[in-house]
Amino acid sequence: MRVAIIGCGKQAPKHIAGYRAAGVDIEPVLADLDEARARALAQAEQAEWSGDPKTLIGDRSIEAVHICTPTASHYNLIVTALEAGKHVFCEKPLCQTVGEAHNLAIRAGAKGLVGAVGYIYRFVPAFEWLHGLLNLEDGAPLGRPYFGIFRIGGRGSHQPWKHSVSGGGGARNEMMVHMLDLVLWCFGDLRNIQVLREGLLRPRRTIQGHSIAADAEDLVVLSATTSGGAELLLEADLLTPAFSQFAEVEGDNGSFFGSIQPHLPSFVFLERAVGELHAGRNELKHGGQSPFARQMAAFAEAVRRGPTGNLATFESSVALMETVSRLTGAVSGED
């Protein structure tokens, strides 16, 4: 595939590396409003670059467009790409409002184009395991889930816009959406969502050698109830000096613990054996392709044959955006 990558910050090289690690043959063409940044990354990746993102999107040789720009710019860039007949992979979150998400899903569907969002946790072996455990037709090995904790903590202070409300940043958009997407994928719809704590603990940040005033929240704690009655706690922050992430689910036949971090154990502990899982501790061995490689391979496969498996589509992001909107008690931005 000949792929346009718009935005040459931290995520762009991960996308290229993901394709290459998965053995997908691509020709990346890079673009950024900062031409020097596009040129530098193109040189490092032995790729082409363009000084005009919109012209690049319109190039007939481009088959798919990756959006790796700040959240506030996603919607307009995606509309431009879809109108040009391009498949789209967008970094999370898809956009800023429920109305925008609906519009993008409808536009992509009407044109028969793949629209995908970068929710990488769907491709982590531990969470694929959890999804399978909770969605078996003949009953979940954990039994009836009744409690769960999902946590993600990041450092922050990477880009000013990530700590700006106007830029679409904050712990909710940058971090919590990952855990919400994971919970919705595993459990389905959520009820009784409550914001237990949302705040700004570090109002000043030093980013790229400059002190800036942050106005986007850097801590969010939620509670929610699944359709099956399990009580969940979700915590996300931009406060953790060393990245930390895990999920724990308790059921009346056992427990699950897993993480994207390979140094942490991922296991299921069962009181009674179920199928191939024995009573006691069942370990999941980390290894194989990286989640990024598997995600990029899934997108390339979707472009060829249509979305399947774990890929987060624009349609699934509508449900996620609706859930996020419920955190403020109102659905905003609907057309």
TrEMBL record:
Residues 142-256 form the GFO/IDH/MocA-like oxidoreductase domain. It comes from the Bacteria. SUPFAM superfamilies: Glyceraldehyde-3-phosphate dehydrogenase-like, C-terminal domain, NAD(P)-binding Rossmann-fold domains. Gene3D superfamilies: Dihydrodipicolinate Reductase, domain 2, NAD(P)-binding Rossmann-like Domain. InterPro entries: Gfo/Idh/MocA-like_OxRdtase_N, Gfo/Idh/MocA_Oxidoreductase, GFO_IDH_MocA-like_dom, NAD(P)-bd_dom_sf. Residues 1-119 form the Gfo/Idh/MocA-like oxidoreductase N-terminal domain. Pfam families: GFO_IDH_MocA (PF01408), GFO_IDH_MocA_C3 (PF22725). GO terms for molecular function: nucleotide binding. This is Gfo/Idh/MocA family oxidoreductase. It comes from Ferruginivarius sediminum. The lineage of its organism: Bacteria, Pseudomonadati, Pseudomonadota, Alphaproteobacteria, Rhodospirillales.
